């Protein structure tokens, strides 16, 4: 029998990794928006110029909204892990603020 691996498709293309899924969902490589470790100033400037050109293209007009939607979906799916908040214990009693001192 074959392995029962779950396969993920975006727009008819199989995503083999999480980064590939995001790239297929956005239509652009993630590195274009996040940069790459060790990139030079000229590489960064070229990457940002390319990003501006893409955002100016009518085909990608909805990209900022798409990114926000994807981010919200990720937060919703992983909220328990992302927001694992532990309440802090309150002190047993409150101290009165000292009113001693000279008036200015």
Write a structural description:
The protein is mainly α and 104 residues long. It contains four helices and two strands. The chain has helices at residues 18-26, 30-34, 41-56, 63-82, and strands at residues 8-10, 13-15. A two-stranded antiparallel ribbon has the order 1-2. Strand 1 and strand 2 (13-15) form a beta hairpin. It is elongated, with a radius of gyration of 24 Å.
What is the overall shape? elongated
Low-confidence stretches: none
The description of the largest β-sheet is: 2 strands, antiparallel
The H/E string reads EEHHHH
Beta-strand content: 5-15%
Task: Provide the descriptors you would attach to this structure in a database record.
104 residues, mainly alpha, two-stranded antiparallel sheet, 4 helices, 2 strands, 6% strand, elongated
Walk me through the topology.
Elements: E1 8-10, E2 13-15, H1 18-26, H2 30-34, H3 41-56, H4 63-82
Antiparallel strand pairs: 1-2
């Amino acid at each position: 029998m074959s392995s029962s691996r779950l396969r993920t498709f975006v727009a008819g293309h199989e995503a083999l990794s999480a980064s590939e899924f995001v790239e297929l969902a956005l239509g652009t490589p993630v590195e274009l928006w996040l940069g790459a470790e060790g990139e030079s100033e000229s590489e960064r400037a070229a990457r940002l110029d390319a990003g501006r050109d893409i955002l100016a293209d009518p085909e990608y007009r909805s990209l900022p909204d798409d990114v926000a939607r994807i981010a919200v979906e990720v937060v919703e799916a992983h909220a328990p892990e992302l927001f694992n908040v532990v309440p802090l214990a309150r002190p047993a009693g409150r101290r009165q603020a000292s009113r001693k001192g000279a008036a200015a």
